[in-house]
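# nightly structure sweep
# worker-07 picked up a monomer target from the shared queue
# config: single-sequence mode, recycle default, output format = C-alpha cells
# input follows
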Amino acid sequence: MTRRESRHLAWVMGGMGLIGSAFGWSIQPAAFPHAWLAAFTTWLEWPLGCLGLLLIHALTGGSWGYALRPQLIAGIRTSWLLVPVALPWLLALPELYPWARPGAAAHLANGFYLNRPFFFGRVLLYLVAWLGLQALTLRALRAEQPDIALARVAPGGLIVLALTITFSSIDFTMSLDPHFNSSVYGLITLSEMGLFALSGAVLAASLAERSRASPELLPVLGKLLLGILLLRAYLDFMQLLIVWESDLPTDASWYQVRRSGGWGITATFITVGYFVLPWCALIWPQVRRSWRGISRVSGLLTLTAIVHQWWVVVPASGLAFGPVDVAAMLCVLGVGAALSLGEPRNGPSLPAAALAAGDPRGG
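# output follows
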C-alpha cells in the first residue's frame, strides 16, 4: 500500500469514526467521555513522542534520526490538532473525574492540586509549552544549519517536555482515580510515548520506497525499539511490584478494576503484545534486518498501545467496552494519521555533514 492510499484510508477511517462518535455521544452520553479521553491520550503520544525523539537525536546523533526525520517532522506538525481534540474532553470533565464535580475536591487530601481552576491553569500551561516547543523546533529545522539550531533547543526543550508530560499524565489519566498513587506513572508515560512514536515512524517509513534502500539502518531501528520496549516493561513492572508489596487498598483497587471481567484477558493480551512477542522477535537478527519484520513488530506495538490506553481509561467509567470506544479512537487516530501522511517528505535521509563525519550507519 502506497502512502497516498494509506492517507485516503486514514481519512475514511477518521470520517467513519467522527460519525460514529457523534452518534455514540447522542445515544451513550455516559460512555463517550472515557472513550474520547482514551483516543485523545493515545493520539497525544504521537506528536509529543516525535518531538522528544527529534530533540534526543539532536543531542545524540545517529543515522536513525535522519532516516526517520521526515516522519518525525510530520508527526510534530500535527500538534495543532491538540486544541480541537481537547475540547470535547474538557467539556466532559465532571463526567470523567470525581474530583471535578462540585464540592468533591474539598474532601480530598490532594484537593489543593485536584481542583478545576488549578487544573485548567495547568492545561493552559501544557498547551503553551507544547505548541511553543513545536514552533521553536520547526523554526530550528528551517535554519541554514538545522542540526546546530536543534541542538540549541534540545536541552531546555527536553526538560520542558519531560516535566509537562509527567504532570499531564497525572492530570489526564492517573487522576481518574484520585486516590491512586504511583511515583513512576510519568516515567511510564514518557517511555510509552517514545515507543509509540518510534513504532509509528518506522511504519510510515516502511511506506517510502527510499527507506527500503537503506537496509543497514534496520538493525539500529530494531535495537532502538528493543531498548525502549524493555524500559517501558521494566517501569510498568516496577509499578505493579510496588503496589503489590505495599498492599494498600487505595492503590490495589486501581489494578482490581482493570483485572475484573474481560479486562483481565485484555491485560494478558497487553503483556504478550507489548513485551513478550516483540521481545522474542527483536532479539532475532533476521527480524531486525528485515523491513517486513521491523514493520510488523512496529504494527503490533502500535495496536497494543491503543488497547493499553483503553485498558487504562475505560474501566474507570464502570461501563463495558463498546462501539463508541472504537469510533472515538478511529476518529482521532484516523484524522491524525491522514494529516501526518499528507506532509511533504522531501529532503535527504542523511545530510552531507553526517556522511562526511563518517556516521552513515548511526551505530
